C-alpha cells in the first residue's frame, strides 16, 4: 500500500469522521481562488506565532485568507489548545481529548499582541466541554493580560456556546471585551447534521445574554452558506439575531476541508452574497460583511472601526 501522509494526518486529526463515506470535493469557482501565502511580513507573523508557541485559527481551520491577513500582521489567536471536544461536520480543527490549560498562555498571547503592534486583536478557542466553566475564566485572563500589555488594543472574542456551563457567558461579558462574537454557523434545520453537539437556541441565547450583561458591548455572529440552506431560512436567522440585538453579521461561503467533511451543496455567487447583504442591512444590522471569502475575523480591525462609526451615526439620528 502506498504511504499517504495526508490520509494519516486526516485520520489522526478527525478519528470520529473516518467511518464517514467520502464526499466529492468539486472544483471551486473562480471567485473562490486566493493567492498562496508568501512574503516577508507573512514569514515574520508566522515566526512570532511559532516563537510564542501560540495556536491560530488561521492555521487550524485552514482559513483561505491567511496570506492576506498575515501579510498585514493580523492573526486570530486560538486559546485553550488545538484539540476540540466537539466534532462539527464543517470544521477542520482536530477533535479529541484536550490537554490541561496552559496557565501561561494568556501572557504569551498578550506579549505577542504587543510585539505585533496590533490595534485590534481577535481571541477564539476550541470547545472545552471538559472544563467546568467551558474556559470562561481563561478568556477573562487573556483579556486582562492583553489590557495590561497593550491597553490601547481593542479586543474581540469569538467564544464557543458554553452549553450547560451556567454563568459562563456572564463571566466573559463582565470582562468587557469590545466585541463579543459567537457564530450561529448555519440554519436551525441543519444543526443535527452540521453542529450535532450544539443547539441553535443555546447559541442564540449566548449573544442575547452578552448584551443583557453589558449593553455597550458590540455583539457579532457569523453564518456559512452552501450547506443546503434556503434564502428564507437565512432570513429567519437574520430576524432571530436582530431580535437578540446583534449588531454585526458576517456571511461567507462554506468550503469543504476534506472528503470526510460535509459536502458543499451550492457555491453562492458574488451577486447572491450582495443580495444577502441587502437583506441584512434592511433588517437593521449596524454592520454586514457578506462575500464568498468573508470569515468571522477577516478585516476585524477595520470592521470594528466601521461598527463604532455606524453606532455613532445611529445615535445622532435618534
- Span between termini: 69 Å
Helix fraction? Answer: 25-40%
The order of strands across the largest sheet is: 1-4-5-6-7-8-9
- Helix tally equals 12
Beta-strand segment tally: 9
- H/E element sequence: HHHHEEEHEHEHEHHEHEHEH
What overall form do the CA principal axes indicate?
A: globular
The main β sheet shows up as: 7 strands, parallel
Strand content: 5-15%
Give me the Rg, rounded: 19 Å
**Could you say which structural class the secondary elements and strand pairing correspond to?**
alpha/beta
Low-confidence stretches: 1-8
- Mean model confidence by pLDDT: 86
Tell me the layout of helices and strands.
Blueprint: H1 5-13, H2 40-51, H3 57-60, H4 66-71, E1 76-79, E2 83-84, E3 94-95, H5 105-116, E4 120-125, H6 136-149, E5 154-158, H7 168-173, E6 179-181, H8 191-194, H9 200-213, E7 218-225, H10 231-243, E8 248-253, H11 270-282, E9 287-290, H12 300-317
Parallel strand pairs: 1-4, 2-3, 4-5, 5-6, 6-7, 7-8, 8-9
Amino acid at each position: 500500500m502506498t504511504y499517504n501522509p495526508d490520509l494519516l494526518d486526516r485520520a489522526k486529526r478527525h478519528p470520529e469522521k473516518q467511518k464517514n463515506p467520502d464526499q466529492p470535493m468539486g472544483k471551486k469557482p473562480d471567485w473562490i481562488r486566493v493567492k498562496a501565502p508568501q512574503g516577508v511580513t507573512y514569514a515574520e507573523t508566522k515566526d512570532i506565532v511559532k516563537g510564542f508557541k501560540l495556536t491560530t485559527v488561521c492555521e487550524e481551520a485552514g482559513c483561505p485568507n491567511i496570506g492576506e491577513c498575515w501579510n498585514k500582521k493580523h492573526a486570530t489567536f486560538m486559546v485553550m489548545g488545538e484539540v476540540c471536544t466537539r466534532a462539527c461536520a464543517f470544521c477542520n480543527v482536530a477533535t479529541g481529548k484536550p490537554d490541561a490549560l496552559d496557565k501561561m498562555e494568556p501572557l504569551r498571547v498578550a506579549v505577542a499582541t504587543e510585539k505585533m503592534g496590533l490595534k485590534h486583536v481577535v481571541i477564539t478557542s476550541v470547545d472545552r466541554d471538559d472544563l467546568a466553566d467551558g474556559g470562561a475564566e481563561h478568556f477573562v485572563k487573556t483579556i486582562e493580560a492583553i489590557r495590561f500589555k497593550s491597553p490601547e488594543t481593542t479586543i474581540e472574542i469569538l467564544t464557543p456556546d458554553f452549553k450547560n456551563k451556567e454563568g459562563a457567558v456572564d463571566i466573559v461579558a463582565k470582562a468587557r471585551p469590545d466585541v463579543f462574537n459567537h457564530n450561529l454557523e448555519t440554519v436551525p434545520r441543519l444543526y443535527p447534521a452540521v453542529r450535532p453537539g450544539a443547539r441553535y437556541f443555546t447559541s442564540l441565547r449566548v449573544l442575547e445574554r452578552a448584551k443583557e450583561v453589558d449593553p455597550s458591548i458590540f455583539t457579532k455572529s457569523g453564518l456559512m452558506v452552501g450547506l443546503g440552506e434556503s434564502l428564507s431560512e437565512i432570513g429567519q436567522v437574520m430576524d432571530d439575531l436582530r431580535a437578540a440585538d446583534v449588531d454585526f453579521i458576517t456571511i461567507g461561503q462554506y468550503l469543504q476541508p476534506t472528503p470526510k467533511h460535509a459536502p458543499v451543496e451550492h457555491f453562492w455567487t458574488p451577486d447572491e452574497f450582495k443580495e444577502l447583504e441587502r437583506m441584512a442591512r434592511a433588517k437593521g444590522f449596524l454592520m454586514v460583511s457578506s462575500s464568498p471569502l468573508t470569515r468571522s475575523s477577516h478585516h476585524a480591525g477595520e470592521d470594528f472601526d466601521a461598527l463604532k462609526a455606524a453606532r455613532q451615526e445611529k445615535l445622532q439620528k435618534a
